[in-house]
Amino acid sequence: MKLAGVVSIGSYSDADLEAKKQSLRTVLRPDTQLDMFAADSGVPYIESSFEFYLSEVAVARKVVEVAEMGYDAVIGTAFLDNGLDAARELVDIPVVGPAKTTLYLASTLANQFAVIMAAGDLPKHVRTFAKGLGVADRIVDVPTLKCTVADFLHDEDNAVAMMIAMGRQLVDEQGAEALVLGCGSTTGLAARVSQALDIPVLDPGLTAIKYAEMMVDLGLSQSKRAYPHNARVMQLFRAMM
């Protein structure tokens, strides 16, 4: 099985991609191949709606490119599934994102949960996803930390401490029974938060990559009734590539 991961941050170096690959590989079977690609989005981080929207076309374009390279499934690593709904209309292989998979899985593990995000104005998009999945009433809060995406990447210990403190408050004061880490840069940190709080904490990257592996195993992909091909749109998209 060959899986491809697409990061939406255009500033990722080869070393960054390799580190991301190694962290995601921890939950995959030994015989599953994983390769990482960076979308040419032009944004260093995604902490605002503007950066979110800028990244979407770049991610969809990269998904189409890697799908034509013979991969069995593609995952996007940005938490908000940037560009993935569009990409599902353009390719036949499974396209998997962290937001839908983690929000849905969290709803199967707890009656109510919270999503912790980095600083920015993105919580409203999480609530939109939750409404579409029918789990909005399960979310007690979508707070943001006083740290950036860069802090998750470069100061993990401080970021984990902040998530634990916020998580404890969500559990004690708002009744959260599970947490979702709402940032693609938190891969590998969930276990430390879960151990400190003694509740399930979902890692968005690991959840998405394992879900993609499962989709391929089951022979499933997105419904073309839900994400239909459109020859005119595909022609337009090709002209943009």
UniProtKB/TrEMBL annotation:
Signal peptide: none annotated. Pfam families: Asp_Glu_race. InterPro entries: Asp/Glu/hydantoin_racemase, Hydantoin_racemase-like, Iso_Racemase_Enz_sf. It comes from the Bacteria. GO terms for molecular function: amino-acid racemase activity. Belongs to the HyuE racemase family. This is Hydantoin racemase.
